[in-house]
Amino acid sequence: MRGISPVIATIILLLITIALAGAAWTYFSGYLGAQIAKDFLIASAFCSDNRILVYITNTGITPLNVSADFVVAMVNNRDVKNDLNKTLVLKSSPGGTIPGETGLVLNTSCDGTCTGTHFIRLVVGSREITRSIVC
User: Fold this and answer.
1) For residue 61, what are the CA distances in angstroms to 23, 54, 98?
2) Residue 47: which H helix or E strand, with range?
């Protein structure tokens, strides 16, 4: 009984390795692309007239629709998702190279006086940003 030659075996192993590397690259490029598609940063957050105002900038490659994309919006561990500007849609940057649009995403009351430190937590997809402000 004869086996396959070492040259043929090496070629088969190389083809298997190339196929696995191609499959992994395809998977991870799609996965990482989805991770940066929805991205943002808090441009500014401050207190005014017993209200907390938060402006964000879309830094992803797709538009941010506040009513659909924001999973969590909290101030001092209090759910403020109902205070989000649900009509706001921030355009993305062209090609993801420069920041996109900035807009007022959150306008919520301080529940009394706006003194002291307040903690803001916003989540879009896998992107979570926490910021503290002092009023």
Assistant:
1) 24, 21, 10
2) strand 40-48
What is the tens place of the pLDDT at every residue in 48-58?
888 999 999 88
Options 1.10.20, 1.10.10, 2.60.40, 1.10.1200; CATH for 38-134 is: 2.60.40
Please give the C-alpha separations between residue 7 and each of 2, 11, 12, 126, in angstroms, as whole numbers: 14, 6, 9, 47
Could you tell me the pTM of the whole model? 0.69
Is 47:120 a contact under the CB 8 Å cutoff? Answer: no
Instruction: Give the whole-angstrom CA distance, residue 48 versus residue 127.
Output: 27
129 strand-pairing partners:
122
Determine the residue type at 21: A
Q: Inform me whether the pLDDT recorded for 94 exceeds 70.
A: no
